[in-house]
TrEMBL record:
Keywords on record: Kinase, Transferase
One Pfam family in the UniProt entry: cNMP_binding
Coiled coil: none
CDD domains: CAP_ED (cd00038)
Occurrences of domain Cyclic nucleotide-binding (ranges): 10-112
Any one GO MF annotation of this record: kinase activity
Protein name: cAMP-binding domain of CRP or a regulatory subunit of cAMP-dependent protein kinases
Domain of life assignment: Bacteria
């Protein structure tokens, strides 16, 4: 929970009283590799703060996984649309290695945020962080070639390149695995 508290302090001022009010909405969960944090077709009812390990968000299209995001230590994984609307999720979030996450129960979080403005502000900041990450990914696809996307990750997120398999990385970059191998060999 110490990592979570540091993360919270990086976003907003938070007192010990705010923390005590937030604690009932939090649960630490350990996921095995390939276990789902969220399955497509289910309503998302939580935010997941990744303490250790990493997970991926992906769509399954015609039996093929299309990776859209990876969440590492100190990231928050969720489906914002499903969380906000109560609609079923179109994508899944799955542990890619053993993962420990702190689950924010959205129902309890909403209840305490009505009573504590600092918790409400924290929720807003967390959602802004998630939206900013999604916007950066969308811009990468609209503005960059596959080679440029790979170079961008080399510069801005080298840890992703070291931890994610070539198959998952090629899906994330929107290229065939063979194309990714050619891109990497040119580097």
């Amino acid at each position: 929970m110490e990592n979570l508290l540091r993360y919270i302090h990086s976003l907003t001022g938070f007192s010990p009283g705010n923390w005590r009010a937030l604690e009932p909405a939090l649960t630490t969960i350990v996921f095995s590799k390939d276990e789902y944090l969220l399955q497509a077709g289910k309503v998302c009812d939580a935010l997941f703060f990744v303490s250790s390990g990493y997970c991926r968000a992906f769509y399954n299209k015609d039996g093929q996984d299309i990776n859209t995001a990876f969440f590492f230590e100190n990231d928050i994984a969720t489906n914002i649309n499903s969380l906000a609307t109560g609609e079923k999720s179109d994508f899944s979030i799955q542990a890619s290695e053993p993962l420990t996450a702190i689950r924010f129960d959205i129902k309890k979080l909403r209840e305490v945020s009505l009573l504590d403005p600092a918790i409400e502000a924290l929720g807003r900041k967390c959602l802004q962080q998630i939206a900013a990450k999604q916007e950066k990914h969308a811009a990468m696809f609209k503005l960059m070639s596959p080679q440029e996307r790979y170079e961008f990750l080399e510069e801005h997120d080298p840890g992703l390149l070291q931890r994610v398999s070539l198959t998952q990385l090629s899906s994330y970059l929107g290229v065939a695995r063979e194309t990714l191998s050619r891109i990497r060999s040119r580097r």
